[in-house]
Each structure stands twice: as structure tokens, then as C-alpha cells.
Amino acid sequence: MIKLNFTNFLEGNKSTEKIFKSYASKIETLNNSIEEKKCKGASMLGWMDYPSKYNKNEIKELINVSQEWYNNKKIKNVVVLGIGGSYIGVRAGIDWVLPEFNREKEIYYVSSMSSSYVYSLIEKLKKEDFYLIVISKSGTTLEIGVAFRLFYSLLFEKFGSEGAKERTVAITDKEKGTLRKIADTQDIQTFSIPDDVGGRFSAITPVGLFAMGVMGLDVNKVLKGCAKAIEDTKEPDIEKNTAYQYAALRHYMYSKKEKYNEVFCVYEDALRFFTEHLKQLFAESEGKEGKGLLPVNCLFTTDLHSVGQFLQEGNQIFFETCISIKNPLNDVVINEFLKDEDGLGFLNGKKLDYINKVAASSTIDAHHIDGKIDIIQINLDNRNEESFGYLYSWFSKVVAMSGLLLKVNPFDQPGVEAYKSRMFTKLKK
């Protein structure tokens, strides 16, 4: 499902073959530690098992409830309260599969404490009906706790206790935590977050699957793609495992070439939030003990008009990873409305996706040939539920190996607590 292209990386395939050989033994050893669940952070490898060993009854119930919400044409709005992996991965999946406009339902995400944004959304929803999805393992995440108070109380005011709970689903811990307690007290429908799956790996669990189902995605196809990726990446031989090939090249660029930034490039607006997911995935997994590549995401050609100058001729502390989709969800033919008055007559009758792909290949040529930038290309055929699930789990295996190559625990994020503890101390004064 995934094809890697190394044509524009170092000197091409000859270079990558040498690198793969140098990493082969180390990769095999680390792969065994992952598969045998003996690696650093092994207690948080549940995302590897989930696509094939999930609770069948819970997912059946999740699909039934999400389809019921999706089929209710009277309620057009869905509000998702989540932050980090409880937001980014959810949105990445929905945006990956659905067209940007004319969706069956409008979805709004509350993932910050911007008073202006929250006020505007509340004012809109005072006049309209909406469903509410709250996602938090503990229920003590401040951003989500505050948002839940505001939006659940709005439902309560509009529809009463019964109406509010009918329009709400909580995704939280199976047994414990503040949100679990509130959901049980209020008799709110819940689905559980597995104990052994961290936030940035969790979009393939009810964390992401419920909202995806509400928006019309086929949950089973997402899980099918995930399961295939996990199976494909069990292979210990780096020559046969694209996830480990990519992990090895990332580590090589960091440790041997002193490239400390990775720029993720996409040419489709719908893929932007997948690169936001990658930003969190790699930053939280690798950024420890003074180590790690800083992930940066770019939407081309838009960002070529802002950071393009730096990428072409600036401080070359980075390499690029470009993700592309062969077949667009939809396409547009350039009309002959102005004939050649604008000097663009040579584009008459051409498809917009073709023009976009020419821009992509031209940028790759300019960056690699002229700018001497090393570029890894990740190519997929289609945007759909299965390809999203596959790529999501494929990158999860990449980051597991990447973190272990750096000799850090890829599955914790202790540094995130620093701002939280200071924030709570100040707020309680």
C-alpha cells in the first residue's frame, strides 16, 4: 500500500542500500524487542494488538451508536472536545477520507482555551442542535474539563438532563478517573480508552473511531488498514520492511549528517492534519534527553510562498519527507473562460491535480538538484479509510523503531507535565 522513493535522497538507491545493511543487525534486534514486548515502554504497545484483538462487542456498539447519530438528519452539528492525540488524530482521519465541504454533518473541534473561539461556537450552538463527544482518559485535562462544563451545560439548558445525555458520548477510562465518574453519575454513554495505548497512538481506538463513524466513515475499514500495516511491519529484515527502512534513514540523517529537523511536505489540504499528527507523534516520542528530530509540517504549494526561500537557500539543518496521493478524491478541469488573456492558455483543458503534481515534481527537483536537499518520498494510491488506517499504524511502527534507535522510551512524554503543574499552581492562587 505504501511505496517509498529514494531517488532524491543522497545518491539514490545505492546510498540507501548501504545504510540499510549497516542498520540490519540493530534493526533486527530492536524489532524482536518490540514484537516480544521487551523494549523500553513495552507496557504501552497496545496499539499493535488493538486492530486485531479489539473488544468486538464494544466496537459493535460503537458502530451502532455512531451510525444512529450519523443517520439523524435533524442534528447537523458535532462538537468534539479533545486535545493532543484526542484531537489531532481524530481530525486527521476524518479530513483524510472526507471531502472538505458538503459533508453530511458539520464538525467543530474544541482543542484550546481560546475564549474568542469558544464564545463564537457557543453563540452559534445556542440557536442550533448538536451532538457532543468528549475525549479524555482521566477527565482532569484542564482544557477539556473547562470545555465540557461549558458545552454540556449548554445542552442541559437547551434540552434538559435527558436530552443532554442523549446527545453526549464520553470516551474515557474503562473504570476510573474524573470523566468516568461524571459519565456514570450523569448516565452518559461511554466507550473506553485502552490502558496500554497512549494518546498519540489512540485514533485507531474509540478515541478516533467513534467520531469517524459519526461523520460517516467505515470503522471496520480503518481497523482493516491498521491490522494490515501491523502485520506487514513485523518483518525483522530491513530489506523487506519499509517502516524500518524509513526509521533507519531518519536516524542516519540525525546521527551522521547532523540534520536536526524533518520537514513533512504534502500538496493536499486534506493531508495537513495528518502532518499535524506526525508532528506530535515524533516530537513526543523522540524529544527526550536532549535528543530527537524537530518535526516541521508544510502544506505546499502554499508554504512555498512563505518558507520556500529558506528551504531552497537557507540553513540546511533539515531533510524532507513528502507524502503524496496518486488519485485525487475529486478533480477539476481548467476551463477556457479567458482563453489566453491571462497568459495561461497553455493550461486550457488540463486537470488541476495534474498541475499540482507538476508543481510537486518541480519542487522536488529544485530542492534536491539545485538545493542539495535530501528527500524521502512516501506514495499511496488513494485516500480512504483503509489507507488512513494503514499509514497511521505504519508511522506508529516507524516511531517505535526511531525512538529505540535513539535509546529513548518512545511511549512516554514526561516533559508535558512541566507546564501543567505550573499552570495549576498559578490558577489555584
What does this structure look like?
- With 429 residues, the chain is of the alpha/beta class.
- It has two domains: 222 residues, 3-Layer(aba) Sandwich (Rossmann fold); 172 residues, Glucose-6-phosphate isomerase like protein, domain 1 (Rossmann fold).
- 49% of the residues lie in helices and 13% in strands.
- The chain has 15 helices and ten strands.
- The strands form two sheets. It has a five-stranded mixed beta sheet with strand order 1-10-9-7-8, with helices on both faces. The protein has a five-stranded parallel beta sheet with strand order 3-2-4-5-6, with helices on both faces.
- Strand 7, helix 11 and strand 8 form a beta-alpha-beta unit.
- Helix 1 crosses helix 14.
- The radius of gyration is 23 Å and the shape is globular.
- Belongs to the GPI family.
